[in-house]
Structure formats: C-alpha cells, structure tokens
UniProtKB/TrEMBL annotation:
NCBIfam families: hi_GC_TIGR00026. Belongs to the F420H(2)-dependent quinone reductase family. GO terms for molecular function: coenzyme F420 binding; oxidoreductase activity. InterPro entries: F420H2_quin_Rdtase, Split_barrel_FMN-bd. It comes from Actinoplanes teichomyceticus. It catalyses: oxidized coenzyme F420-(gamma-L-Glu)(n) + a quinol + H(+) = reduced coenzyme F420-(gamma-L-Glu)(n) + a quinone. One of its GO terms (cellular component) is plasma membrane. Pfam families: F420H2_quin_red. Signal peptide: none annotated. This is Deazaflavin-dependent oxidoreductase (Nitroreductase family).
C-alpha cells in the first residue's frame, strides 16, 4: 500500500502507534501487538491502528472489540470493504488479506484471544453485538 498513512484519531491508540514505531515494534510486557493498515472505505486514505494479536500457524488473529462499544471499530469496517491490508509485526511489514473467522473457527480463536487478553471477555459482556474475530493471512 503506497501513500500517506494516517494514524488512529484515538489519542491512546495514536500514542501506542508512536511508541511501537519508536521502539521498532518492541512489545508491551505480556502483549503481542501489531500495526494494521487499512484503506478507508469512504476516504480512500490509508489508516493505521495498533492491535493485540495472537499467532496461529502462519496467520495473525485480532478481534474487533472496540473496547466493548456497540459499534464496530472503523478499521474493521474498512477491511470488510477492502480485505487487502498491510501489517507490521516487530520490524517486518507484510501485505496480508483479512477475513472474518468462519463459524467453525470462531469459538476456538475467541478462546485463544481471551486467554491472551482477558479484558476481551468484559468487552463482549458490555455489548450486544458479537465481537468479530479477524484472521490476517500474509500474502507473501
């Protein structure tokens, strides 16, 4: 993806992105983070956010929790419109394709994510929407 990249407007996420960039992706203690770049579904601009992830085989798993809000996060809506994304894990940047975990994989991947980040369980309890589990598969 070529072009100027715009970071999340959320101050906490933007600060996290800057910290990630300044430390070459050094993880937070106990959490694996990646940067996800999507193309804005309305603006066409490249949008960057930071997400906790789990690894399963050669793919990365993230959740569209939006901290338990009743609406999906913008990055999720963007990748639904265009599943071709870029991820940065540590110092490695990879093109990837995003997809929502199918029904047969979703529960197992959800368990993987709440084991890694127990706060996701509280986020699910805070909303009536089902929080999507997203699989990011590098396309290199």
């Amino acid at each position: 993806m070529a072009g100027e990249i715009f970071d999340s407007p959320n101050p906490w996420v933007a600060a996290h992105i800057r910290r990630f960039a300044e430390t070459n992706g050094t993880p937070r203690p106990g959490v694996s983070d990646l940067l996800l770049i999507t193309r804005g579904r309305r603006s066409g601009k490249l949008r960057r956010t930071a997400l906790a992830y789990a690894r399963e085989d050669d793919r990365y798993v993230v959740v569209a929790s939006n901290a338990g809000a009743d609406r999906h996060p913008a990055w999720f809506l963007n990748l639904c419109a265009d599943p071709n994304v870029t991820i940065q894990v540590g110092t490695e940047t990879l093109p990837a394709r995003a997809r929502i975990a199918p029904a047969e994989e979703g529960p197992g991947l959800w368990q993987l994510m709440i084991t890694m980040m127990p706060s996701y369980r509280k986020y699910q309890e805070a909303t009536t929407r089902e929080i999507p589990v997203v699989i990011l598969e590098p396309s290199t």
